[in-house]
Amino acid sequence: MNFIVFLGSVRDSTPPRPKRLGARVAAALTHHPAFAPHEVTLIDPLELDRGPLFKPHFAYAKGKAPEPLERLAREIGGADGYVMVSPEYNHAMSPALADLLNHFGSSLFSYKPSVIVTYSAGQWGGARAAVGMRTFLSELGCLPVSAMIHVPKAQEVFDEDGDYLAGVDADQWEGYIGRALAQLEWWAAPAARAREAGMERPEAFTRDPSQRNAP
Fold first, then answer.
1. Which of 53, 60, 46, 34 is nearest to 147 (CA)?
2. Using CA atoms, how far apart are residues 92 and 94, in angstroms rounded to an integer?
3. Contact indicator for 121, 21 with CB cutoff of 8 Å
4. Strands 39-43 and 149-151
5. Could you tell me the domains of the chain?
6. How many CB atoms are closer than 10 A to CB 45?
7. pTM, whole model, 2 decimals?
């Protein structure tokens, strides 16, 4: 199967130190053993040129969106599940992650599972951001699995390549992360089979928010 890991950070400076802490967490997830049988793509918003103004992919005429958005739309639509990696900003998810995901309609994400991953340089691991992320991701249609991953003091767990630092109980972390990724895989597999079988899905949001309105 195909999975996408979204890195929810565009901060590439110091302070804070170390910079790009989320990149360490995202790297650790992409090469976790649970993902070994699958294809995993890391999406880093710093590498995407979305233009100076916010304009969603679905607001463009078909095939007329900027190539980075077109390419990412194809990747999102072709994925079987998602891993959302976010720091915590004022008890909420990363504005960078929200901005990136808001460029795409729920029709690309819907009927697929997701995993919530939060991190911090402090003791809480971004857990409070995860509360709002459940609502956000549910609205996109990629329902979060029950297990979540929180990484407090991430700079003491992973190095810049996403490998465990000396003295870290790697087995404990592998089991903790693996539990959530196993749930992702468990839900993604039957959903993928349903799509392959041509199982009919209710209409998803593809044009504008009025499609969600009650009659």
1. 34
2. 7
3. yes
4. unpaired
5. 2-212 (3.40.50.360)
6. 18
7. 0.90
